[in-house]
Design brief:
By secondary structure, the protein is an alpha/beta fold. The chain is built from 13 helices and 10 strands.
Length: 341
């Protein structure tokens, strides 16, 4: 499901229509404040705020879904509710609050002090509870799972078992314009080069990715009773100590004295001898690729528990969360239901 990231300034009716015709299903538009002042100053251009809102309107007219992306700093953290209001008025299906990772030119910006992270995360979680029709998520702040009390593999309130923890190198990667592959946009360490290797090879054999997937973080992150559920932000750890598996310097959590380090979650079986009827397999293929493997493993585990040998359309539909992936699409662009013959 291609979603185009944009500041919205150049997104007019014609360009939005072209994106929809080319196969895009949505746009992610940056909006950093509820009023023009801070957004225009941060983006370095007068009129950027009004241009972002105009871009969202053009996207909706073209039938594209809209996500709003906000970068949080000390100066705009009081605007959470105002930004959420604007996102809702724009018809956004999702609002992502990105916590600044101080790398690259981000080191010159004003990050939030440690104690503000917890307070701001709590406010974001409350916004989600108050506005259940819109996805509101904290990005680059995996501590949200701890505040929700969600352990590895657990899901609740629209948070999937894997969501919101650090996905760098585990469910996510970045490709630079030069073809270099890194774990995320904020981690410069190169895992491979597309000029000489296939992406599938890099993904499955990279030493950098293997460390992120199987290594134990240092310091309190490695001893934490949420070390797998949260695990800390690996980009912040690398920026602070130079070590991808270092301690996340922004986490204020202190593990209770009696708590033990969190054990590794069980690995979901990827081949459990479960068959898929063709129509159910077609539904699975429509799920975004970055979560499809997890969905398949979870569905097959439930099918095993139910004593089924084959996943049917009916069984698959019963496993769908209240807000399935297709809910991100405007009604006129959602897939037609599969009807068994």
């Amino acid at each position: 499901m291609p979603v185009i990231g944009t500041n919205g300034v150049l997104l007019d009716d014609d360009r939005a229509a072209q994106l929809a015709q080319a196969g895009a299903v949505g746009v992610g538009v940056s909006l950093d404040s509820a009023t023009p002042g801070f957004h225009d100053r941060l983006r370095g251009r007068a009129g950027a705020w009004s241009g972002a809102l105009a871009g969202m309107r053009a996207a909706r007219v073209a039938g594209l879904a809209v996500q709003v992306q906000a970068t949080l700093l000390a100066e705009n953290r009081q605007e959470l509710a105002g930004i959420a209001d604007l996102a809702q008025q724009a018809g956004a299906l999702a609002l992502n609050f990105f916590f600044l990772v101080c790398t690259g030119r981000g080191v010159t910006q004003t990050d939030m002090p440690q104690h503000m992270y917890e307070r701001t995360l709590a406010q974001i979680l409350e916004l989600q509870r108050a506005r259940p029709r819109m996805f509101i998520r904290a990005r680059c702040a995996p501590y949200a799972r701890r505040l929700l009390g969600l352990r590895a593999g657990e899901a609740r309130d629209g948070y999937e078992a894997w969501s919101s923890a650090c996905l760098a190198g585990r469910g996510y990667l970045r490709i630079t314009p030069q073809g270099r592959v890194t774990p995320c946009p904020y981690i410069p360490e190169v895992a491979g080069d597309l000029n000489s290797e296939r992406l599938a090879t890099i993904w499955s054999t990279s030493v950098v990715f293997d460390r992120l997937r199987n290594g134990t973080p240092a310091g309190k992150c490695g001893e934490c009773d949420y070390r797998y559920s949260c695990g800390g932000c690996r980009a912040r750890a690398a920026a602070d100590s130079g070590d991808l598996l270092g301690e996340d310097p922004k986490c204020a959590y202190v593990k209770p004295a009696t708590a033990q380090p969190e054990p590794a979650p069980p690995v979901a079986e990827t081949d459990q001898g479960i068959g898929w009827e063709p129509a159910a397999g077609a539904m699975l293929e429509r799920i975004p690729a970055f979560v499809r493997k997890r969905v398949r493993a979870a569905v097959e585990t439930k099918a095993c528990a139910a004593g089924l040998a084959t996943v049917t359309v009916e069984f698959l539909r019963l496993q769908r969360p209240a807000r399935a992936a297709s809910a991100w699409l405007p009604p006129e662009r959602r897939p037609a239901p599969i009807v068994r013959e």
